[in-house]
Amino acid sequence: MNKYVYLTCTPEALVASMLPPEGFGMYLSTGTKKRNKAQTIFFEVDLEKIKNLIDMESLNRRCVAKEDGSPKSSVYLSVYRVLEMVPLDALKSLYLTTDHGIVLELKKAPYD
What we know:
Blueprint lengths: L3 E6 L2 E6 L3 H10 L9 E6 L10 H7 L12 E4 L3 H4 L5 E7 L5 E4 L6
Antiparallel strand pairs: 1-2, 1-3, 2-4, 3-5, 5-6
């Protein structure tokens, strides 16, 4: 399974997941036992561009499929000064979600 890295804006955190962006957005916004449902904003982050900023060994050890084969939903990599740490060129699409799990992708584009 693929691994994705996301920068969530509320709360500010760097999160690894095996869920693609649409699945991750639904997971974040519709809630879990630990978290209430709410609207969310997050970026997909290019893992290749931040490998030197995170503990890849920890990511690979912790972000693995569950025993039943289902993908790991989230592994928190950092919650401290994440917006400052991630370079702008590592940010991919921005995703907005409703509290019902609908996900809108805003693709990265050059600013004129």
